[in-house]
Amino acid sequence: MRFMFKTDYEDDIRLFPHSGYVVTYGVLLALLLIAPHVLSSYLMSQLVFVCIYAIVGVALLILTGFTGQASLGHAAFLAIGAYTAAYLQTYNVPFPVYFLAAGLLTGIIGAMVGFPALRLTGIYLVIATISFALIVEEILARWESVTHGNEGMRVKTLSLLGVAVPRDSPTFYYLCLAVLVLTIVGTLNLLRSPTGRAFVAIRDSETAARSMGVNVALYKVKSFAISAAITGFAGVLFAHKLSFISPEMFTLQLSIEFIIVILIGGTFSLHGAVLGAIFIVMIDPFLTYLKDDMPGIIAGLAATFGASTATAGNIQSNVAAFASLNGLKGAIYGIIIVLFVLFEPLGLYGRWLKIKLFFQLFPLYKRATFKRQKIYVKSERNR
Amino acid sequence: MLDFVQQLVSGVALGCVYGLIALGFVLVYKATEVVNFAQGDLMMLGGFFAFTFIGMMGLNYWIGFAGAVAAMALFGMVAERVVVRPILGYPQFSIIMATIGLGYFLRSVAGMIWGTDDLKIETPFSQGVLRMGSLVLAYDKLSVIAATMILCALLWLFFNKTMLGTAMRASSENMLAAYYMGIPVKRVVSVVWAISAAVATCAGVLLAPITFIHSNVGLVLGLKAFPAAVLGGFGSIPGAVVGGVLIGVIESMAGFYLPEGWKDVAPYVVLLTVLLLKPEGLFGLHVRKKV
Fold first, then answer.
1. Percentage of residues in chain A with pLDDT exceeding 70?
2. Contacts of B201 (CB under 8 A, 6+ apart)
3. Do strands B129-132 and A244-245 pair parallel, antiparallel, or not at all (unpaired)?
4. Please, which residues 223-262 of chain A have a Cβ atom closer than 8 Å to chain B?
5. Packing angle between helix A270-304 and helix A170-191, nearest 10 degrees?
6. Mean pLDDT throughout A271-295?
7. Are B107 and A211 in contact (CB < 8 Å)?
8. Cβ proximity of B14 and B251 under 8 Å
């Protein structure tokens, strides 16, 4: 067990509290760098999506996790980023310029959404962001001179400093990874700055924050703008990865998926965004795998436990029929969300912390360490 | 002018459907401060239950209707027991996510059981129109309007005049204090979910002749009913119906008088404007913050 002695403020806000961090993250980064040489092209493609989802997850964490403002409209910010890139590309604007322009534009729009959101809390804010997302979706479908409406837009291959970067090349993966790492480091720095502490103060108690001299309105708008801008950057990468965008890709469903990312990952730490993104992106290939291999495995198990060949075959076909049912994925999604909310509200990262603490304190670990306090709610109307 | 009245009536009928679903939102919110994102899906499930009883088992319409309402009330209680009760009292965000998850689950399972086709229920109101001069009103739409009015009145009386209704309002204000006053809060919450699922079923069955039933109907209509509830102030029973009717009328007027595309957006534009001017909705209570 390691004891941390903090003797001054600098110790408390250090990015790497001890050398262990440098080693772990160094190894992780090295593994990610050699990944394109090891993994199959399909997995690499999934990994790019993990990066993009993680960037959005970080953006959402700033807003929802650290400032406490729920948003079900992040698909709209992603869409604005993606469409800005696609539109500017038709005028042969170079990548760095439209990448930044997309972030800037989404940031401004995010701030504009933030202003009305100042007076709204809780459920009213959720419905306001849903409304915003639905309106953006409709605008994308109707503003045909810019967005080509429901036909969608082709996104040309990314060209960086005159070199073409195809969407399934390792270079594109490195680009996404770089953006992700920069986003995470930037956010970490933001969170240990006065701005970040103001965000957290607003989340914990708006009234208390205001009485301590935090300009709540200003920081809420800032949080919206920063979160939207980061999502806009992700949108550019998303557009390039898909190479084709149309309004029906940016539905409420996608916004909910982003919320699920941080919910499953854990809303109290940036680790959560990455873990959640891995989970959400990898669940698809995992389900396909289950669908293909599970019937055989279960039948094999049945056979080893003494079932006759006919019964085993029967079981196999039944399981296969069940696995290929339409909508099974949605049902599994639903169950996973409910299970996480009920049993693991701290998310995957919370589970990891529990496991880590178990071994650190072994054999003295107490379950009660992470037990949630039962709260008897007073009406939020009076809060 | 005739066009206008015709649009107005069909807008009101549509709005009443939104209002009925919004009633369910409001009921649960009023009693437990939980926002049930699966409300639309409860409605969808109620419609499917009614279809099973009436369309597949060939029961009489009214018996099937009652059966569906009873079955869904039971289902509402079970859903509350399994999904909501363990996290009652935790931040709203968790509960919203749990009900979103429940909604996902119900949609997919309903799709698996009843398929993805549009289903139709034969009702006594399916055929026939009421002619008033040159104005033509279909019975199925009128039935929705009438049922909404009746349900709204009954629920309002229930909440404001009965013991159980008062207990519900008390437990929503402060659960712990309600416990101390001897209110069985858990049972109260359970009953509220049953009522709200029953109201949702009424909406689903009445809606069946107009929009048909399919597994996504709950999501589509729920997304319209939600602004209705917010517009009405989330927590006011008449407000929910008024909000629903407003949304319905705005939608049908926008579809008729404004260029294509406005129909789906107009309700949300209005909603955002209202929220900007009056963040607690039209009928919401404005409460001062206490520290």
1. 95
2. B42, B43, B45, B46, B47, B49, B50, B68, B69, B72, B73
3. unpaired
4. 252, 256, 259-260
5. 130
6. 84
7. no
8. yes
What's the rounded Cα separation, in Å, for the pair A132 and A279? 27
**Distance from A338 to chain B by nearest Cα, in Å?**
5
Domain ranges of chain A: 40-251, 284-382
- In chain B, whose CA is at the least distance from the CA of A322? B112
Task: Give the list of residues 6+ apart from residue A91 with CB closer than 8 angstroms, or none.
Answer: none
User: How does pLDDT run across A302-357, given as a tens digit for each residue?
Assistant: 777 777 777 777 777 777 777 766 677 788 888 888 888 888 888 888 888 888 88
CB contact under 8 A, A341 and B97: yes
Percent of chain B with pLDDT over 70: 94
Which tokens in the block code for residue A8? Answer: 């001054």
Is A107 a residue whose pLDDT tops 90? yes
Chain A: give the shortest CA distance to residue B143, in Å: 30
Nearest residue of B to residue A321 by CA position? B112
The percent of chain A in helix, strand and coil, each rounded to the nearest 5, is: 75, 5, 20
Please indicate if any CB of chain A lies within 8 Å of the CB of B173.
Answer: yes
Is pLDDT at B136 greater than 50 in this prediction? yes
Alpha helices (runs of H) in chain B, residue ranges in sequence order? 2-32, 39-50, 61-79, 92-114, 139-161, 163-173, 175-180, 185-211, 217-231, 237-257, 262-277
CB count within 10 Å of CB B120 equals: 14
Q: How many CB pairs under 8 A join A and B?
A: 157
Residue with tokens 């170079």: A94
- pLDDT score, position B125: 67
Domains of chain B: which residue ranges? Answer: 2-277
Distance CA A251, CA B119 (A): 26
Within chain A, strands assigned E span: 153-154, 158-160, 163-165, 244-245
pLDDT tier, A105 (very low <50, low <70, confident <90, very high otherwise): very high
Task: Give A308 to chain B, closest Cα distance, Å.
Answer: 30
B226 inside 8 A of chain A by CB: yes
Beta pairing partners, B213 = B119
Q: Which two tokens stand for residue A70?
A: 């729920």
pTM confidence score: 0.87
- Token pair 């593994």 is at which residue? A31
pLDDT of residue B287: 55
What's the burial of B85, exposed, middle or buried (CB within 10 Å: 0-12/13-18/19+)? middle
Contact (CB<8Å) A382/B290: yes
A128–chain B nearest CA distance, Å: 6
Q: How far apart are CA A118 and CA A10, in angstroms?
A: 33
Give the residue among A254, A210, A238, A261 at the shortest CA–CA distance from A52: A238
Q: What pLDDT, on a 0 to 100 scale, did the predictor assign at position A374? A: 60
- Domain B2-277 matching CATH 1.20.120: the answer reads no
Kindly state whether A185 is in contact with chain B, defined as any CB-CB distance less than 8 angstroms: no
Distance in angstroms (rounded) separating the CA atoms of residues A192 and A270: 13
Say what the pLDDT of residue A187 is.
Answer: 93
CB pair distance less than 8 Å for A374 and B89:
yes
